[in-house]
Specification:
244 residues; alpha+beta; globular; DNA-binding
Length: 244
Amino acid sequence: MRGVNEGDRTPPSDALGRLPPFDRARLGGDPVEAAQSLVGAVLLREATSPGSELRAGRIVEVEAYVGTEDRASHARFGPTDRNRIMWSGPGAAYVYLVYGMYDCLNVVVGAPGVPAAVLVRAVEPMAGIETMRTARLAHAARSRRAWSPDRLRAEASRLAGLDPPRLASGPGAVAAAFSIDRSATGLDLCAPDAPLRLADAGHEPPEVVATDRIGIGYAAEPWKSKPWRFLDPTSRAVSGRRRR
DNA sequence: GCAAAGATTTGCT
DNA sequence: GCAAATCTTTGCC
């Protein structure tokens, strides 16, 4: 286990842990604007056990899902047991399971009663990188039941050599690296003392590029082509294509 | 009650 | 570029 900040140039973990909570008012207006404002924000996870570190990273890629009319949104069937939290108002976490093995973190946005959420697709790690590797491996061991001990050892080796910007690149990887699962649904991500929360990075927002959303080929137009994916084109942590 | 598909990731061809 | 792994949610009979 490495000592705190030994040999890296990221801000000290204790300073990251004291960043101001993300302003809920910035999430409660237009959901698309809320999504853009989350690019550059910091995702924080308090240490979960002795020996684990505080995890922090800059959000560099998100997607907005807006209202019941959006044919790509989970809200398109109206409120259900799974998606009900999307109607609850800004700041709540909505975590769902996709493809039977990947949890995906969303930030509920928009006014209460309007179902909208922002999918966090990629985070650029700033602290707790070794804990993220451990969490990625734990997720693999839990979800890939068919894997042999040899295959798991190979995965441990692959993760050990993975560049930090790739550790939380993609929505399933974000949740795995930050140890987020569906039990986090309903957490208030704007609460200053939440174990998983959003913080303000405290400097100018990054350049933000808009593209259409990923993995929603099932949706009809015009929803399929809405430019509601937002990313920081300078980050190596962005998943997939950077342009339309 | 059952079949189908999914806001994904990874490895192999 | 394609398919596998895995299981919950939703739709249809």
